[in-house]
Amino acid sequence: MQSTDAPPSTDATPEPLAHAGHRLAFMQPVPRNLVHRASVAEVLLTDSARLDDTTFLVAAQWPRDHALYHPDAAGRADPLLFAETIRQMFVYLAHTYLAVPLTHHFIGDALDFSLDDTAPLNVGATPLNVVLDARWTWHGSRPPRRYGMRLDVVLSVGGRVCGSGMISGVAVDDRMYALLRHKDARGRTVPDGDTVGVPWVPRQVTPAAVGRLRTKDMVLERDPVDLDWLLRVDTNHAIYFDHPSDHVPVMVALEGFRQLGYLVVNEGLWDSPLALVSSRVQCLAFGELDQPARLVVEEAAEPTGSASLRRLRVSIHQGGRPFAVGTTVWSRPAGPPEPPEPGPRVERVERVEPKPGGTRPLIPSQRGRR
């Protein structure tokens, strides 16, 4: 009996319009160790080309669906696929073209992305082939022990530019990494009480309320005493912790900013939620795995005076100080514009350093949620 299934299409892969002649393949992922992934299934990059000393082209394929990075209700690819692609590029280009040793530790200090045109990100009948123009900059490097670097990228889909992003940080050897970890841990205090290591129980929020499909993918939980939002760090999660880490990965912090942002800006908008279109994360210190981490909403704004565009600034505090700050921008999906309200409206929340007893960030009402 013959199969009636047709093989996948082998159409020519799209080329970035600004670099005709540089063809990139989407046939298989790059080696997983070059992007610091343990699972081949989590590798997004497929090919690359070096244009000169500091500029590159990189190809990536985004899956039609993913256990964690799934399309939204409107069928658009998860924007955090863009963030993860930028992270993988940072490591891959450093190892592949720029002689940074595979044994070095990467420490990020900033990661941001912005999507100016989301129409090309609609998920269709095949995976999404994306091309990224990348520019590399060295800063503060002292090789071979320390490499300081920044990567700026422009995202194209089908030859259409739709977003940009940036990541910066350092790569250091074992000795310098140990010194940095020891220095960063000094001065931190672990709050008294039994909050560290308490088994996680979801409280008053569902996966749908934070834009997720599965309970296991939620990184938010409520403090049972003061109702603060805490960052849930599950080191057994197969994607957040694809491989062992001695600190909170930047993608976990970014997911915390995304989930709390979704919860705050979409209260009462479940039929037509705002979509994440921009995010910036600043890493100020290492986030420890064995200490409670509290998320504090510092500012919620409507920069155009319309509820169709919201900006949120959130910090994550641990041991008496913030270790990450994230700013997210949310926009209403394409459709008829909503008339703006007169003048910009900004809600400011006084920044208060968390104490062992907890602080009270801006918390959306839970009325009407099930």
TrEMBL record:
Record region (Disordered): 325-370
Any GO MF annotation of the entry: transferase activity
Superkingdom, natural source: Bacteria
Domain annotation A-factor biosynthesis hotdog: ranges: 34-168, 209-330
Basic and acidic residues composition-biased segments: 344-354
Biased composition (Pro residues): 334-343
Any matching Pfam family: AfsA
InterPro entries, sorted: AfsA-like (IPR047757), AfsA_hotdog_dom (IPR005509)
Official protein name in the record: A-factor biosynthesis hotdog domain-containing protein
Organism of provenance: Actinacidiphila rubida
Lineage of origin: Bacteria, Bacillati, Actinomycetota, Actinomycetes, Kitasatosporales
